[in-house]
Amino acid sequence: MDTSLAEVLGDARQYLEFLKDIGCTSIGGGEKGRKIAEQWHDEAPALQQNIPLLQKHISNCRRCRLADEREAVVFGQGDPEAGLMFIGPFPEAEDPDTRIPYSGEAGALLTRIIEAIGQSRGSVYICHAVKCRPTSDRLPDRFEAGACRHWLKRQIRAVCPQVICVLGGFATQALLKIDEPVSRLRGRFHEYEGISVMPTYEPAYLLVNPAAKRAVWEDMKKIMAIMGD
Ligand code: SF4
After folding, report:
1. Fold entry, domain 71-226
2. b/e map 3-18, b = 16+ CB within 10 Å
3. Domain range summary for the chain, segments of one domain joined by +
4. How many CA atoms lie within 13 A of 2 on its CB side?
5. 124-166 pLDDT tens trace
6. I want to staple 147 with a disulfide (CB 3.0 to 4.6 A). Which of 36, 64, 127, 211 is the partner?
7. pTM higher than 0.85, yes or no?
8. Is the CB of 113 under 6 A from ligand 1?
9. CA of 177 to the centre of ligand 1 (A)
């Protein structure tokens, strides 16, 4: 199926599920039905910006074939009103068990980076571009990243951070749709729906390339500067 058609059908299904959540049991015709439909249309976007409701819907998501591979959906963690949001590529090996993004070795390094800029895992928001980890040893493909963008977009709108830090090339490409290596994109701010976006190296990459930590620190200093601290 064409990706855009699949997205439209997926959106329609999600919209109907949101309508069910707000108590609608049928869609009737006539003037009364039209008014109810208009009211649903006004209310549904607000519900889409509600993190707990988003989490409930994503837990049953079957928008891509990772639904058959995953052990669990790893949604996100942190302050749902955080000023700073970190977006990694897809769950680490440990994450499906803990249901927490970045709960493994790379996550421990991310925690140290967050603490180095005077924040904590509870004061920022952390998630992945793709919420389900492939069980086989492969990266999510373009279709899967595109399908999960549906959720990422809504999650970003719900948190509405001042700054997004995207970790690594996969997450950067998934968010910004720029097909360039992170080494060329990092070090300067980009923009996504009016939000400042700083790409930097992924913590798992830093574990095997510690020399790149210096560049990450430079990127963090720019984030601190734009956030006023
Ligand atoms: S990866 Fe994203 S789009 Fe695919 S099934 Fe998981 S939550 Fe749904």
Report:
1. Uracil-DNA Glycosylase, subunit E (3.40.470)
2. eeebbeebeeebeeeb
3. 3-48, 71-226
4. 3
5. 999 999 999 998 889 999 999 999 999 999 999 999 999 999 9
6. 64
7. no
8. no
9. 18
